[in-house]
Each structure stands twice: as structure tokens, then as C-alpha cells.
Fold Type IV toxin-antitoxin system AbiEi family antitoxin domain-containing protein.
Amino acid sequence: MDAIATLRRHGGVARVRTLTRLGVSAHTLRRERERGQISSICRGWVALHDADAMLVAAARRGVVLSCVTLAARRGLWVLEHSEPHVAARPHSGHAAATRGVVHWNLPIFPRDPELCEDSLENALVLMAGCQPHEAALATWESAVKKGLVSLDALSRAPLPPAARALVDEARPFADAGTETIFFTRLSWMNVRILPQIWLFGHRVDFLIGERLVVQIDGAHHVGAQRTKDIRHDALLKLHGYHVIRIGYDQLINHWPDVQGMIMDAVAQRLHLPD
């Protein structure tokens, strides 16, 4: 059995017993160590020389990558975070020395002891208690929209209250977490807010009332995309719609200004037909 190929299929990091069970002999492992292709990173674990540094660190500390870190690695929308989040069973020996945030917990969903990454379900449950509600909801909705988790399956698990609330609230409609955050922050308003509405051949992020369109620009709104957006904005205005565009920084870091702008527009009845 090819030790290198087998290790690569496991992300470049694996337990020796896992490789042995899959047919990699002790002789093959010793030969690859002597060649410098693999190395022992801690007792019972080996890794390729170019293995993912985060997986190697997790194996050394006896933890698994989880919470917001795992969500980001799965390509889900997350708010920016600067330090790794890992999970460990209570009283795990080396985990206390881990850099970043350690979630000491007993997993709700079975955690494979031969992997250095948590299940996405466990990561989402941890996010519910770790991240601000709107940020966690945005990641949950991203996972649901991508079809990576099932809300039905999650709802049948013995979830803590914060995660239970997200199961009830999450919907697979938002194209980005910014849309989830915008909608959540304005849910108190006594006005209809519809996400992802088609108008004149293009989707708009939100339609407030009948005439107020809100578009949330991301980093991709440049070049040809920006030209296309401007053209559609003009078309909307020619048909009696009012368009407000906001950027990521405005939404995340200057929310009172954004909310004030929307409130002023509603107060001026711009969300209603003439």
C-alpha cells in the first residue's frame, strides 16, 4: 500500500493505526520516514512534509479544528476572525497549551477520533454559543444554502438553547452573510422586507415595501460587475424604484448610519408607490 497516497487522502495527517488498518505496513512507514517523505509529529501520528500546518498543530495538541475556523475552511461565510478555534474533550492533556480559543465540550454529534477536524454539525453548534447571534445565523444559513447540513437532522439532536434558536430561524435564502445580518438587524421594523427578489431580469438583495431596493455590495462589485449593477440601478429608477447601495464596511462597522438611512427612506415613504 502506498503510504504517501494514503496519507494524502487523509489530508496529509493521520494516525499510524489508521494507516496500518488501511494496509500500510510498518516497513513502508519506516522507509518513507528514512526518505524524509513523512515524519512523526507526535506519538501515534505521522504527517507529510507539506501537510496542512493547522492539521499538524491540531494532532500535536490532541484537539480538532472546529467552530468558526472549521466553517471558514469549509468555504462558509464567516465574519473575520483572527485566531483559530478548536474543540477538545474536557480535561484533555495538551489542549490547554493550544494557541487560540479552545472549546472544552462533549460533542453532540459523534466526533471521529482519527480526524483533526470536527464535523460541521458540531462546529455550527459551537458557533451558536461562541459568535454573536447574527454572525452565527449567517454561517448557519450559508451551510444550509450549500446543502452541507440538514436542518431537519439538526432539529432532532439535543441542542443547547442557542443552537435550537438558530435551527428555528435559519433559512436558505441569503446569498451572503451580509444579507443575513442586514435582514436580522431590521427585523424589528413594521414593514415588509423581501430578500432575493427578481426585478427586470435581475435579482435584488432586498425589496422593502413595494419600491425601495437595497443592494449590498461585496468585494466582487468592480469592473464588469459594477457596470452591470449601475445599468440595472438605472433601469430600476426609470421604473419608479428607489435604490440604496451599501458596502461591507458600512454594514459591519457603521450600522447606525445604515439603519438611519433606511429609516429616513421609509419615513419619506420611498418604499411605497407614488
